Amino acid sequence: MADKFDVIVIGAGPGGYVSAIRAAQMGLKAAVVEKWISEDGKPVFGGTCLNVGCIPSKALLEASHKFVEAKHDFDDMGIQAGDVSMDVKKMMARKDTIVKNLTGGVAGLLKGNGVTAIQGTGKVVSSKQVEVTDQDGKTTTYDADNIVVAAGSVPVEIPPTPLKEGLVVDSTGALEFQETPKRLGVIGAGIIGLELGSVWSRLGSEVTVLEAMDDFLPMVDGAIAKETQKLLKKQGLDIRLGARVTGSEVKGEEVVVKYTDAKGEQEMTFDKLIVCVGRKPYTQGVIADGVGIETDERGFIHVDDQCRTSVPSVYAIGDCVRGPMLAHKASEEGVMVADIIAGHKAEMNYDAIPNVIYTFPEVAWVGLTEQEAKSKGIEVKTGSFPFAASGRAMANNATEGQAKIIADAETDRVLGMHIVGQHAGEMVAQGVIALEFGSSAEDLALTCYAHPTMSEAVHEAALAVEGHAIHMVNRKKKK
Ligand code: FAD
Ligand code: AMP
Fold first, then answer.
1. Average pLDDT of the residues in 437-455
2. Does the CA dihedral 84-85-87-91 come out positive or negative?
3. Tens of pLDDT along 147-160?
4. Per-residue confidence band for 476, with pLDDT thresholds at 50, 70 and 90
5. Do the domain assignments include residue 192?
6. Residues 6+ apart with CB under 8 A from 82
7. Whose CA is nearest to atom 52 of ligand 1?
């Protein structure tokens, strides 16, 4: 007879492993089932995020950014670095080491918190039972009072560009190139496409990004998106909007891509092509027929605001449910459901989830854009401050970008913070806290910020909401 658990989590990504750890901390007997297995037959924890997502992509972004700095910016600072070159294989090996350390760390955290890790593919077979098939095909059924499905997501594939190993790849393949391609095509100007395109562009690829939509980063505040597009173009990314990919043909070591734009049919040849057209929930086969858990036509599991599915003892979190596909969103949901299962009250503020694009400069935002607020009929006032006027930005050689705050015109409550600039991803935490605490733009304006810091731009943007920025001449002057 297999063990019985208070909670079994299916999937050990940032949603699942965090949920299992929290459940154990709450005194529950918790297990996590993970199907990912290493070449040497060991279970691999951390999901997309640690293995083929957030962390490896950031390792490559950091290395490629340092390369650009050493090659182009050091001289300005008086640093004579000589001939700078990139050893791509070594950069990849460093990334692999980071991934290995982190995934091993999760194994240690699970063990240290008393979570039972079960290797195998999990399936919800009834409201309180999970069947696990291990790597040898043996199945074991575990009883659990509660089940959390955290099965994550996988890249979307599109018929015009079937994958071909090493040549036409998804985001996972793009983290494995062993040399810099000369001509690189990227389909999709979403977050992942822009990050991966940036990595290889910095290392010398001629990068063309083909994006079907006419708008660039429509989820980002208009002013910030416009500035980001300009900055990325200056860096050499050829971003073609309104360019829908309709076909491709592999010819030897090259791939010919067909797309349509306003001028008609176009064709481009690349040495590598990255398909970054979004991700889809990975829920096929995770729930047995007849359990009664509802999914939509795309495979997302239906959940309420507290991640309850249509079956009371089963919860679902992270990329396999509605909402942004972000690691921190998955983790917060994991904590919330563990707390609920442990009998506590818990909820999440879905209006205060930050987003970051780790290009250089970074783009980060939380809350409403100016356009969204207006379309909801909210009258807003805004304040912006350019990093060009920041002393710290000058010292850092990072004067590009701006910070922008959107506040309710009547109540002054902060509705959104949008930043394009160095370390924007760190700075946006101030906006998250402002939203969580319901603070006003004036609260931020009256806060004492350390000098000199990049965050002073956020302070100045808050002051600018009332036309009172100190370190620039305000466009609107108010008493
Ligand atoms: P996943 O991380 O996908 O984990 C799900 C796990 O469940 C996997 O390990 C899978 O093997 C396992 N599993 C699935 N089905 C079963 C089953 N039946 N039985 C057992 N195990 C199963 N997000 C950010 O917040 N910041 C970033 O900078 C960022 N960068 C990214 C860069 C790239 C290139 C990509 C691809 C993604 C990035 N993301 C980023 C998104 C982030 O990785 C995901 O939002 C996050 O991993 C979702 O977590 P999850 O736990 O829901 O699912
Ligand atoms: P995201 O979902 O943020 O990862 O972004 C994926 C992007 O890919 C979206 O902006 C889509 O418009 C874009 N996209 C999807 N299909 C195509 C296509 N056939 N050609 C060009 N762009 C596409």
1. 98
2. positive
3. 999 999 999 999 99
4. low
5. yes
6. none
7. 318
Mind listing the pLDDT tens digit for each residue in 387-410? 999 999 999 999 999 999 999 999
Give the bridge partners for 420, in sequence order: 363, 402
- What would the pLDDT profile of 47-84 be if each residue is shown by its tens digit? 999 999 999 999 999 999 999 999 999 999 999 999 99
| Pocket test residue of 238, 277, 355, 356 for ligand 2, highest count of atoms within 8 A of CB | 277
Query: Using a 6 Å CB cutoff, which residues line ligand 1?
Result: 10-16, 33-36, 47-49, 52-54, 57, 121-122, 150-153, 171, 192, 282, 286, 318-319, 325-328, 330, 358
* Residues 193 and 315 occupy one common structural domain: no
Q: What is the mean pLDDT of residues 14-39?
A: 97
Q: Is residue 470 part of a domain?
A: no
Euclidean distance between CA atoms 71 and 40, whole angstroms: 39
Of 277, 292, 326, the residue that ends a domain is: 277
Q: Which of 451, 459, 468, 471 is catalytic?
A: 451
Same domain, 389 and 344: no
CA of 159 from ligand 1 middle (Å) equals 23
Ligand 1 centroid from CA 50, angstroms = 8
- 104 with 195, same domain: the answer is no
In terms of domains, do 248 and 395 share one? no
Residue 479 lies in a domain: no
CATH assignment of the domain containing 365: 3.30.390.30
Can you give the residue range of the structural domain that contains 253?
168-277
Confidence at 475, pLDDT banded by 50, 70, 90: confident
The enclosing domain of 203 has a CATH number of 3.50.50.60
On whether both 83 and 188 belong to a single domain, the answer is no
Indicate which atom in ligand 1 lies nearest the CA of residue 14. Answer: 51
Nearest 10 degrees: CA dihedral of 330, 335, 337, 338?
140
Of the candidates 190, 200, 201, 240, which has an alpha carbon nearest to the alpha carbon of residue 355? 190
The per-residue pLDDT for 184 is 98
User: Which is it for strands 279-281 and 153-155: parallel, antiparallel or unpaired?
Assistant: antiparallel
Q: Is 423 assigned a catalytic role? A: no
Q: Distance, CA 276 to ligand 2 centroid (Å)? A: 7
Residue 477 has pLDDT above 70, yes or no: no
pTM for the full model?
0.97
Host H or E run for residue 140? strand 139-149
What's 469's DSSP letter? Answer: -
Please state the domain count of the chain.
3
Ligand 2 near 174 CB (within 6 A): no
Indicate if the pLDDT at residue 41 is higher than 90. Answer: no
Task: Give the ligand at the shortest distance from the Cα of 156.
Answer: 2
